[in-house]
Amino acid sequence: MTMAAIVMMSACTAVGCSGQNSVVYFTKDITPESLVSIYEALGVNSEGKRVTVKISTGESSRTNYLRPAFIQNLVQTLGANIVECNTAYGGSRGSTEAHRRVIAERGFNGIATVDIMDEEGEMNLAVTDTRHIKHDIVGSHLRNYDLMVNLAHFKGHAMGGFGGVLKNQSIGMASSSGKLYIHSAGRSTSRWMSDDQDGFLESMAAAAQAVHNYFKKDGRNIVYINVMNNLSVDCDCDGSPATPQLKDIGILASLDPVALDKACLDLVFSHQSVAGDDASPLIRRIENLHGTHTVEYAEQLGLGSQQYTLRDLSQSSGINSSKSSTVNLYNVYTLDGKKLLTNATTLDGLEKGTYIINGEKRIIK
C-alpha cells in the first residue's frame, strides 16, 4: 500500500479543524505498542479523567474482534474500563448474564473492568438531526465517563456495508432497544425493521453525532481509532464471518470520526488488488449497501469532514512527516454494477453520465 493512494483534500469543516484539514494518523505496524503510540499522537490528556475504551467483544471466538492481548497496553496505560452494550438480535450477548459469560471466556476480565453500559437501564442523548430518530438511546452507564476511546475494528458489515468508528459509536453504544431504534430509522424500539437502508445509515450518523456532542461538553472528550486488520466482508457480530481476502493495512486514529472512517474507506477503495490481497469483495459489500452514505451524511450533519491530511507514524517505514499526495486512484462502475476502471489515475475518457466512483455516485458532465 503506497501512501500516494490516499486522497488528500484541502478545506475542512469539522469542529476543531481551525480552517485546516482534519489530521488522521496512520501506522502500518499493528502491535500493542503501536496502538499506544497512535493514541499518544492525538495529544489528549487522560490525567484525572474517568476513562473508558469502547470495543466489540465479538459474537464468537471465530470472529475477528480485537483480542485482549492486543488492546491490553492501551487500556492499562490509560487506567481505563472497557465498555460494551448488549445486542438486539439475541445470540451470545443478548442479555447481561450471557454477555458476561462471553466477556469472561474471551479473557477481557483479565485486563480491565468490563462495564455493560445498559445493564442498569438507558439514557437518551439529544440528536441534532431528527429526520429519523428523535434521540439516541444508550446505556445509562455512559454518564460515568469523562474520556472515551472509540476503538473500532474496521471491516465489512452485512447491513451497513462497513463498520468503523461511526458504527461503533452508534449501534455499538446503543442499548438493545436503541439498536432497534436506529436499525428501524426511528420507527420501533421493539422489533427489527430493515426496509429503509438510507434511513438506517442516516440514523447511524445522527446517533454517532449525539455521542460525540455529549463527550464534547462539560470537560469530557472522545477520540477515535480504527484497526484495519482481518478485513472480512462480515462484522464481528457475525459468529461465522467470511475469511478475509484483503491483507492487514494498519492502525489509523483521529479526533474527527468522519475523516477517520473516510481515510479507511480510501485505503480500501484505492487498494491495488493482487492475488491473495484482494479488496474487491469488501468494496462490493460496501457499494451494494451504499455504505459510504453514512460518512457522507455525517459530514452533512457537521460531525466532521471527509477532507483530511494523513500522517504516517510507521516505525518500520521510518516516515514521520505529513503526506500530501495529489494522486487519486479511481474505481469506476456503471449504475448497474459493471466495472469500467480499476485504480485509474484519471477520469478523462469517461462519457457524460452518472457513475459510481470510489463508492460515491457522481455525474460526469
Could you please describe the fold and organization of this structure?
The chain is α/β, with parallel strands linked by helices and 365 residues long. The protein is 26% helix and 22% strand. The chain contains nine helices and 17 strands.
What's the structural blueprint in terms of helices and strands?
Elements: E1 22-27, H1 32-41, E2 51-54, H2 68-78, E3 81-84, H3 96-106, E4 114-116, E5 122-126, E6 135-139, E7 147-153, E8 155-157, E9 161-163, H4 165-170, H5 176-183, H6 197-215, E10 221-228, E11 250-254, H7 257-269, H8 280-288, H9 293-300, E12 308-312, E13 322-323, E14 330-333, E15 339-344, E16 353-357, E17 360-364
Parallel strand pairs: 1-12, 2-3, 2-7, 3-4, 7-10
Antiparallel strand pairs: 1-11, 5-6, 8-9, 10-11, 12-13, 14-15, 14-16, 16-17
Helix pairs in contact: 1-2, 6-9, 7-9
